[in-house]
Amino acid sequence: MAPMQIPHKDDLEETWSFLAAGIDSVMLKLDEGVDMKHYMALYTAVHNFCTSQKAVGHSTLQAHRGAHLLGEELYKLLSEYLSSHLLSVYNESIRHNGEALLAFYIREWARYTAGAKFFHHLFGYLNRHWVKREIDEGKKNVYDIYTLCLVKWKDDFFGKVHSPVMAAVLDLIEKQRDGETIEQSQIKSIVDSFVALGLDENDSRKSTLEVYKTYFQKPFIDATTKYYETESRRFVAENSVVEYMKKAEARLEEEQARVNLYLHPEVTKSLTATCLQVLVSDHTLLLRDEFKILLENERQEDLARMYRLLARIQDGLDPLRTIFETHVRKAGTAAIDKLAADGENVEPKLYVNSLLQVHARYRKLVDDAFQGESEFVRSLDNACREFVNRNSVCKTTSAKSPEMVGKYVDSLLRKGNKAAEESEVEGILLQIMIVFKYIEDKDVFQKFYSKMLAKRLVSSISVSDDAEAFMLGKLREACGNEYTQRLTKMFTDVALSVDLNGQYNEWQSKVLDDEDRKRLVDGQFMVLGAGFWPLTPSGNAFTAPAELTKSAERFQKFYFNKHNGRKLTWMWVLSKGEMKANYVKNTRVPYTFQVSAYQMAILLLFNEADSIPYSDIQSATSLPPEILDPTLAIFLKAKVLLASPEGAKPDPSTIFSLNYNFKNKKIKINLNVQIKTETKQEIEQTHKTVDEDRRLLLQSVIVRIMKSRKKMKHVQLVQEVIQQVKARFPPKIADIKKNIETLMEKDYMERLEGDEISYIA
Question: Does residue 7 have a pLDDT over 70?
């Protein structure tokens, strides 16, 4: 091959003819390769021409200007060549359409950009000098050679073919959405070319996504909207809502996969928003109506699917939460209605378990179907709080629920409950604490619980100290130390009483001989602080038998020697003991009766006589008929005593006799049974003390707030009181106002002008 003749550096026509032949070869036959000598010759020709000093004077300034002008000529000729080439490419493209047009476009784009990269290096000297100077001087429409190639493609070819190319792309995507298999790489190549054409007009070295957004993303989103509007409308008309949700979910997943496969990530946000609008938002009313049906039929999987769909749109879940809250409230109310036609006879265990079952069912639904979302948990809490405090059992007072919960806890913590192990008791108590959380009148629970705890401790019938401590700890966690302060002090008193009895026994052994000790009743004493125990001495008159009185006096002497200045008030109503029935015939082992102090006083009378009239018993014990009659009735029912005339009930004309033929399967018989009238009176009394405690609490809170603030608007004071008290019970505004007036009458506060209240120090 003959050596290649490089054109004269001063001859523009000769130089361009030489370069044009090489450029044309690169553009059309680059895949055949480029000879290095040919490449170097072309590069040298560009360099020589750009450094030529022809036609300009010999000064340094003129030399630079000459090179500047020569570079411009070469730049223009290359630009004209590219326009001419792209015109021929466009004329060729007219003969193609559809997928054939896409294949042609992709092939020509690949050939053209490969050539553009070659030209960029070939005209490297032009880039580094003339182009750089032009750009630095702020000249418009001047680019480095590769960018020039892209600009020419965009202006001279892309502008003419983007519409049919995009139509072919959208047709392919629609085919894929319809289930056909397509050549995804074609769309990927088109996307990449649209992205590459995004040139920054202010800085050719930077790129933007404007071409992609305008010519690809916008028509793609428009086509997507139209496609799914048509499909969803048709699908909903022919299928169930549940099937539509499955379809919508599948389509959303497909579109996300489409982004990952061949679309630019920039489209993700817009595509997702469009699909959610068309597939979900436009059908929200339909979905929300179906939500009620799914809830009623407990279709957890479908509820979860609906949650996933509506969670993705703004405010999509708010109406669902409202529907869910209403549904749960109705379910809880219905469960209690079904349980009790008569609220007075409902078993506490059944009542609490019914509440727990409703909560457990819907808590599981929230966790599994609604992903434990906090707002759905809040709706569940609101619903539970409503039906726990306001249901058919609570029709007379909302304080019924805390009373029932307290009774159930008491039954669990008493000896004889059916829970097999302590861990089982603790597990049930944890469940009960769920209901406790929703109780509004926590002060009512505290009042009932403290009374029941007092009885368990005084009677030593707690199932275990650990179980009691466990429940106390849970209450402390839920309501704080102040709530459990008195309860804790009760346990302290019990522990101190154990030590005190030990000291008492030591004292007796020192001051009494054996004969004296035998004559005394063997007793265990509990000293309970009056300010912490919810116990009040019975208002009933009672004359204790001498046997008990002597023992009590002996302990009192010991105690006053140890604690000077204290006062002991004997709680005979809570005292109990055991008595041996040595009189019963035909029994080897004497029966042991477990009795109250009242019962003990009555039975001890029969040591002196076999038969005693009602009036003598009443005279000896001083018990009023409302206590004496039911106590004697217990003896008659157990057949420990017999009435004369036979079958008579306790009244002033009845005579009572010991039953010497008493029989029972047990050796130890518990006669210390609580009288129903006592139970009802205690409940009524408890509610009365709750009202009094609330009055005092409201007044103390009002004083505390005013002492801190000095002056406050009346409305602000009421709101502040509600905030501070609502953890214990929901105060009535009327009660707050009434107590404010009471404190004003007592000169704690005074009313100023403008509905303002001032604290009087």
Answer: no
